[in-house]
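Lab channel / #folding
Pinned by the channel admin:
"Please post every new chain as: sequence first, then the structure tokens as a reply. Keep commentary short and put observations after the output so the thread stays searchable."

First post following the new format, from NK:
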Amino acid sequence: MLLGRFEDAWLESDAIAARNGPDPNCLWDGRPFRGNRVIIRCLHGFGDAIQFLRYTGLVRRAAQAVFVQTHPQLRTLARALPHVDGVTSWEDGPGRHGSDWDQQIEVMELPRAFRTTLVTIPTEIPYISPPGPYIERSRYALGPRSKRRIGLLWEGSNWNSARNVPAPELLPILATPGVEFYSFQRGTGREQLGLLCRQTDIRDLSGDSPDVAYLAADLMQMDLLISVDTMAAHLAGALGRPVWMLLPYEADWRWMLRRRDTPWYPSMTLFRQKTPGDWRHPVHEIARDLGNTAFRD
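Reply from TO:
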């Protein structure tokens, strides 16, 4: 899949299943969804859920009903999906009991269920949108627009620190004239915001609400998000917002190799490290491209 050979990946999955029998880590029983009540369980990270919930429309074309069980922080956005009949989290139903559904599938199993290839990835984008009141709240909070707005996010979860960019390395980007910068950084990386504030103007927009719909609404107000490989980048892509993503030398399989674009998100551009651990090249590329007229007043 890193090489973009999805068809070969599914053949390998079939061969593994034939040799070893049913995989206890797989929830999908392999049967078609036709006429069934299907529950999609989002048991991986936020970004994984956002990326693969695009398949709900394909499931709904065949299924009698589609339910989503996801993280509490994603419930508001999942409820806004047009092809979903119900959304729950871990504590509530439907979904806790087998009588509530006929089939279950983990959200990251959906590409295999539909034998996805590079040309059949669902690209009806945007497929996620925050409710209207969230957008109105964000517009009011940000106030009148005077310049182009660019969001920044330099650190993701701690499980793969190679994805994270030390905030001071972004200073060449922050030197771009004629734009307003907004920090979406949460977690431990937020501690580095002070290093940037001492050298440039940047507004903290990270917020405290656990509801990801607030983040989605704020991203709708941005002209561009510059982010490492994290949930916010997936969310911006699912919203159809322009997003430039900084990738480490050994990037995740879904971004494949040597591509500047990605079939998963048409509005996303990839900026890759040339050597492991060295962010100077992709940061310089972004700083250079920000000088284009598309991001000037």
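NK: The beta strands are 37-41, 65-69, 86-88, 103-106, 148-153, 179-183, 203-204, 224-228, 243-247, 268-272.
TO: also worth noting, The longest strand covers residues 148-153.
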